[in-house]
Amino acid sequence: MNDYTQSDRRSTGSAGHGAGAGAGVSRQQLLSIIESAVDRKRFHEQHWEGSFDEYLDVVARKPAVVRNAYQRLYDMVLSFGSERYRKFKKDLIRYHFFSDPIDRGTDAIFGLDEELMKLVDVFRSAAEGYGTDRRILLLHGPVGSSKSTIVRLLKKGLEYYSRTEAGALYSYVWLLDADAGPTAKTHEFPCPMHEEPLLLVPADARAQLLARLNETYAAEGGHGKLRLYGDVNPFSRKVMNDLLVHYDGDWRQAMSHIRVRRLALNEKDRIGIGTFQPKDEKNQDSTELTGDINYRKIAQYGSDSDPRAFNFDGELCIANRGLCEFIEVLKLDVAFLYDLLGASQERVIKPKKFAQTYIDEVIIGHTNEPEYRKLQSNELMEAFRDRTIKIDIPYNICLEDEIKIYKKDFGPERVKHIHIAPHTLEVAAMWAILTRLEEPKKAGITLMQKLKLYNGKSIPGFTEDSIKEMRESAPREGMDGISPRYVQDKISNTLVSPQALEEKQMNPFMIMNELEDGLQHHSLITDEDTRKRYKELLGLVLAEYEDIIKGEVQRAISADEEAIRRLCSNYIDNVRAYTQKERVKNRYTGKDDEPDERLMRSIEEKIDIPESRKDDFRHEIMNYIGALALDGKRFEYNTNARLYRALELKLFEDQRDTIKLKNLVSSVVDDATQQKIDVIKKRMIEQFGYNDRSAADVLNYVASIFARGDTKGD
Ligand SMILES: Nc1ncnc2c1ncn2[C@@H]1O[C@H](COP(=O)(O)OP(=O)(O)OP(=O)(O)O)[C@@H](O)[C@H]1O
Ligand SMILES: [Mg+2]
């Protein structure tokens, strides 16, 4: 029987193995893949634990583990590196951390480098201990300006950093009897506020200890000084006192009840990261911030003032060592707000029935513009303003950055089954930016030109100085207008609209319609004037879009390389003859002709070279060709950008009529024309990212513009 089972098992085993081998991989291989991915050394590092004495080794080797929450936050941001650059006469720093390298860009912030720099400067001065560490940070800005995203990033950064070697931090558990008493070490009681173990060192010794540690810390280039404020939490204080009584004052014996453990900050585990969101205004209770009595345990310990019968699980308790976020902080009840101001200013909280308790955490709140404005007349604001550091987080006013926001969510990796035609996200972003800009005060520049200047395009007559001036004269720019969230919502709507689903594409017209329709129901637009203005701005965007696609169609039509090369050499032959006062050999008749003045002018006019300047231009071109030849280089049709553009436009003009673009709008197209159109379409697809359908749409649309007789050259 036994034998039978054995052999039976063996045969099952070998059958199983056979199947595995057939698939080309064995259990052993799979296991070794898993094992090599699970880094045990890292696991051990992250779960380090030891006695208090052993922890002193850790501290001696690396005093930075004792950093406070601000110092750790600042070092975390720096740890991802940064780069300096100059824009519009300002020196800026881009901290790579805000590109969200941890999550491959999921929460990347675009275009707010100046504001983020201010934020990091606050971290820095707080890390140095200049007083900013005793303030509440208030991110303030219009709805949807990425305030929550910034805080989410900071939390994520802290969680991540606490798991790296550079960001390691520690806390401790008590080993006690079942009642949290001193007689045994059978049960673990974690420090309820994950405090730094060195807080257990008696105050007098602590100062000297820190002085020694600070020597190393300073030598290693640490920011500010290592400091430890206040005392341990009421629970640990009670335990410590009981132990000292039990051991007759022997501190080292008491400390044998301590196990130090590495701490991994984690919002989900409620360790070192907290979030508080006011719910009902009338229903706010301070215990949500500072913890509450555990009524079940009162019976066990006999008193509601025994810290063992208290849950230190308020948001400010659990966020100790890290960061506590206050969503819509100005919706907090007034009494609450004062609690909070105390928490940051004195670094203490006051749990029910207990003495004040020291906290070490970054407190960061955010609020909307309207909410802030509502409270501006309130007297409470005085106190609040005085104790907070307000950092404005406006909307982007740079087109390129705004486009990146939408690409993040609606780029080709995210949207797979619907083709988003070129410029779709761009027109949406363009409109959003226009709603945020103030009309230029100076004459001679349109709103759209201002957008382009801000986007880094140069416009004759405008220097970096004038842009700087323009920005300074409109300090509120970016604090009003349409939010990215509104645009994101409209893009989502459009993507699932019947038209998009049927056509498997989304184009600029569809999003512009959706943006306009939505204005009727936009909850934040209350006055008709604004609504009207936003609609008019869509008109500007449409005009700009038409210019863009006209340009593209022109380029696609004139992108016939062979034709443009021929035109170029023809032009150059004529110019050479003209400048050398010679005749040109006619390719067909073989006779010598006068240079073709009509041809040359028809090209030069495309780039606005007046009759009076034509000789200069032609000589310049010939000199240029000569100089190139000396270097052994050849002049090509695209060597000189201006001439290239002129050639393109000329070619477009010549071909437009042969292709009979205008005919496109009528439904009957002969085969020859259709062929030419197909070539153009192909170029649009290859060069600009259209697909068959969107290219056809754009060609039709541009054809209809030309049919209207609008043949603007550039
Ligand atoms: N500068 C920006 N860079 C990247 N994304 C941005 C930017 N501004 C806004 N967003 C995006 O807009 C959306 C709204 O952002 P978020 O929720 O962080 O704004 P908020 O300021 O907290 O808004 P609210 O005031 O309504 O709470 C998010 O998807 C965010 O990624
Ligand atoms: Mg928010």
Describe the fold and architecture.
The chain has 714 residues and is α/β, with parallel strands linked by helices. Among the domains are: 397-437 and 478-557 and 660-714, no CATH class; 558-644, no CATH class. It has 30 helices and 19 strands. A hairpin with a 7-residue loop joins strand 12 (348-349) and strand 13 (357-358). The chain is elongated and about 120 Å long. The model is unreliable at 1-22 (pLDDT under 50). The chain binds adenosine-5'-triphosphate (ATP) and magnesium ion. Adenosine-5'-triphosphate (ATP) is lined by residues 109-112, 141, 143-149, 368, 396, 405, 484-485, 488. Magnesium ion binds at residues 147-148.
Question: What strand line-up does the widest sheet have?
Answer: 8-11-14-4-15
Number of strands: 19
Number of helices: 30
Characterize the largest beta sheet: strand count, sense, and whether it forms a barrel. Answer: 5 strands, parallel
What fraction, in percent, of the residue positions are helical?
40-55%
General shape = elongated
Can you tell me the residue ranges where pLDDT is under 50 for at least 5 consecutive residues? 1-22
CA-atom Rg in angstroms: 35 Å
Distance between the termini: 93 Å
Share of residues in strands: 5-15%
Bound molecules: adenosine-5'-triphosphate, magnesium ion
| Global mean pLDDT | 88
Structural class: alpha/beta
How do the helices and strands line up, and which of them pair or pack?
Elements: H1 2-22, H2 27-37, H3 40-46, E1 49-50, H4 52-61, H5 69-79, E2 82-87, E3 90-95, H6 113-128, E4 136-141, H7 147-162, E5 169-176, E6 187-190, H8 203-219, H9 234-246, H10 251-255, E7 258-263, E8 273-276, H11 287-290, E9 292-293, H12 295-301, E10 310-311, H13 315-318, E11 323-326, H14 334-345, E12 348-349, E13 357-358, E14 362-368, H15 369-375, H16 380-387, E15 388-392, H17 399-410, E16 419-420, H18 424-436, H19 447-454, H20 464-472, H21 484-495, H22 498-503, E17 505-506, H23 508-519, H24 528-557, H25 561-579, E18 584-585, E19 592-593, H26 597-604, H27 614-630, H28 641-659, H29 671-688, H30 692-707
Parallel strand pairs: 4-14, 4-15, 8-11, 11-14, 16-17
Antiparallel strand pairs: 1-7, 2-3, 5-6, 5-7, 9-10, 12-13, 18-19
Helix pairs in contact: 5-6, 5-7, 17-18, 17-21, 18-23, 18-24, 21-23, 23-24, 24-29, 25-27, 25-28, 29-30
Bound molecules: adenosine-5'-triphosphate (ATP) and magnesium ion.
Adenosine-5'-triphosphate (ATP) is lined by residues 109-112, 141, 143-149, 368, 396, 405, 484-485, 488.
